[in-house]
Amino acid sequence: MLDKNEKTNDIEEMVIAIKDGEMDYFEPLFNRFYPLVKKYAQQYYLRYFEYEDLLQEARLAMFDAVKKYDSSKGMHFAGYYRLTLQHHIYGIIRKEGAIKRIGDRNATSLDELIETNPMLQLSFTDYQTPDSILQINEAYKTYPSLLSDFEKQVYTFYMQGFSTRAIALELNIDVIRVRNALERCRRKFKLI
How confident is the model over 61-87, as pLDDT tens digits? Predict the structure, then answer.
């Protein structure tokens, strides 16, 4: 059995060989660090990754570590790879957080939908007296006159079920402009 210094030297030699283009050493080097990869796989939950995906990400991190490793900096490759792998996993977690928030950014609450569409408001209110129905119908008729032509276009697409992104593509504008127009539509509706 190899002692710790022999293992370290062996690993360092494998890294040098891989840098020199001898890729046959890559899998044996990766296998040396498999317990570390397994530990991180158990330690961090990555929602969109299966175990095989995580192994592939660990290989990518190792390839990056081999490519950037400089033994003259005084750090052993094992420590360098551990840090590289850890930072790679943190990057994946950050990206997952961003992916997760996409749905939240495009979500519209039921209250907002009811406020922007009088017909939905009719469906969800408990008081449907003839007077309230007349008032709502009047408000619904006057509402479009409060909107600019651009806001009418955006509102029409939105009421047809288009997402903000789809509206932006349809009108060839930025998503931000669509969101701002919808917000103005909501504010104008509240004025009624």
Answer: 999 899 999 888 888 999 999 999 999
**Domain residue ranges of the chain, discontinuous segments joined by +:** 4-106, 110-191
pTM of this structure: 0.49
Tens of pLDDT, residue by residue over 103-138, are: 554 555 555 665 666 555 555 445 566 666 777 777
* Alpha carbon separation from 111 to 107, 117, 128, 159, 191 (Å, rounded): 12, 10, 18, 15, 16
What are the distances in angstroms from CA 60 to CA 12, 76, 86, 88, 118? 18, 19, 12, 9, 54
Q: Out of 1.10.20, 1.10.10, 1.25.40, 1.10.510, which CATH number does the structure's domain 110-191 have? A: 1.10.10
